[in-house]
Design a protein that fits this description.
The chain is mostly helical and 421 residues long. It has helices at 22-39, 58-83, 88-109, 123-140, 177-196, 225-233, 246-249, 261-282, 290-309, 328-351, 360-365, 367-376, 391-414; strands at 143-145, 148-150.
């Protein structure tokens, strides 16, 4: 059984095709393997657990990288669809269907048996929203070509991602400056709401964990504007009940994948699209390494801006690095690291062929299926079992669970079973 249709979310091209960017599969697979490993406790080491509030651990890295990787895959996949002579209208219809499927699958995983406490947002829901928003930007915000901005709803989108008329130093940026204006407006909207919305009982600009933090001065203000918006729109019964800050600060429900964070999630996804656009523009140039240099420059600049915003510290700086809020410093640092890591994987896997990505590429080729399987079978043997409360025993349990999924992913690969949305 094989669902062979191209998927913007999971695969760049069909498994085994010559146009596949193997390093992206490996990067995606590494993220999924680490996500499964930390979901199973990671041996109960602190750096394999999510940050209580501000800060950055290994566990905080993988989901944002999924969002960034999705942006990389979208541009390449849309370009492949345009080569099949599909119009914007046809591609957008596919986008709507796939975004709906992702969101619905996320709701299913959240388990609505008790529908009056059904969590609405989640990991797949954030992927769906980022995918949908960035697709609209890529498909419908005009691109400058031949000195004019062009957009035709019915026309094949050949000009959007492979603009051969531009060969300048900024040819992967300047033709798309209207799209960048939209993206920066989205980021400005996040900042405006976060720091200027007057939250009842909390005031403006509070971005702490609430509860007992800050001498309990903001007890019911977890996440500030982000928590308030979720509670106002979704209701406290429909948001995440066990945030990482709950145990230490005795807070109420708070959703790290809440509504406001979708804005910065979309920005992160678009930064992934920029990486792909740079690749498309320069990988056929005489100097093949040119796009790698540009990836490294992008990575260093974004990481430097994010580090400056948080003052290279956990709690200081203008905007602390925070996964619970998906703060701008958080997404910029993660996007920067994404550029740098993909550069490394590309050299190792696609250029020098020093490593073909095993076993991680098998995770990457079936990422949605493995993710959903892990979410549903999380507490089933052999993915989990009752282990002694020691680091060694818990670490062994996490390794066995992750290794079991690696074997399953390899079996899917051998049987050419790939599930795409």
């Amino acid at each position: 059984n094989k669902f062979s249709e191209n998927s913007e979310i999971i695969n760049l091209t069909k498994p085994g095709s010559s146009g596949r960017l193997n390093s992206l599969d490996v990067f995606r697979g590494v993220c999924l393997a680490v996500m499964i490993f930390v979901d199973h406790g990671g041996g109960n080491y602190w750096y394999f657990n999510h940050s209580i509030w501000n800060g950055l651990t290994v566990a905080d890295l993988v989901f944002p990288w999924f969002v960034w990787i999705m942006g990389v895959a979208m541009v390449l996949s849309f370009h492949a669809l345009s080569n099949r002579k599909m119009t914007r209208k046809q591609i957008f219809l596919k986008v709507c269907v796939r975004a709906f499927n992702l969101f619905a699958l996320g709701l299913f995983i959240n388990n609505g048996y008790y529908y009056n406490q059904w969590r609405i947002m989640g990991i797949l829901q954030r992927l769906a929203i980022a995918y949908f928003v960035v697709s609209i930007i890529l498909l419908f915000v005009p691109v400058r070509k031949s000195g004019k901005f062009k957009l035709d709803f019915e026309r094949v989108i050949d000009e959007l991602f492979d603009d051969n008329e531009h060969h300048g130093f900024f040819s992967d940026i300047f033709p798309y400056f209207l799209q960048w204006i939209v993206v920066l407006t989205i980021l400005a909207a996040y900042l405006f709401v976060t720091f200027l919305l007057d939250v009842p009982g909390c005031g403006r600009g509070y971005i702490g964990p609430g509860g007992l933090a800050d001498q309990a001065a903001y007890y019911n203000c977890t996440g500030g504007a982000a928590g308030y918006i979720d509670d106002l729109i979704l209701g406290s019964a429909h948001i995440y009940k066990q945030p990482t800050c709950r145990t230490l600060y005795h807070t109420g429900p708070y959703d790290p994948e809440g509504i406001l964070g979708n804005l910065t999630g979309a920005v992160l996804c678009y930064l992934g699209a920029q990486a792909s656009r740079t690749f498309k523009q320069f990988h056929k140039s005489q100097n093949r390494s040119q796009f790698i240099v540009r990836w490294v420059v992008w990575g260093l600049i974004l990481a430097a801006i994010g580090t400056a915003l948080c003052n290279a510290s956990r709690d200081d700086g203008v905007i602390p690095i925070n996964k619970n809020l998906w703060s701008p410093s958080f997404i910029l640092v993660l996007a920067g690291l994404g550029f740098l890591l993909l550069s490394v994987f590309y050299f190792i896997v696609d250029v020098f062929h020093l490593w073909y990505g095993s076993p991680f590429q098998y995770f990457g080729m079936n990422s949605i299926l493995i993710f959903c399987g892990n979410s549903i079978l999380f507490n089933y043997f052999p993915f989990a079992y009752d282990a002694k409360p020691t680091h060694f025993a818990l670490l062994t349990c996490s390794i066995v669970g992750t290794g079991s999924w690696a074997l399953i992913a390899f079996a899917f690969y051998l049987n050419k079973f790939f599930v795409n949305l």
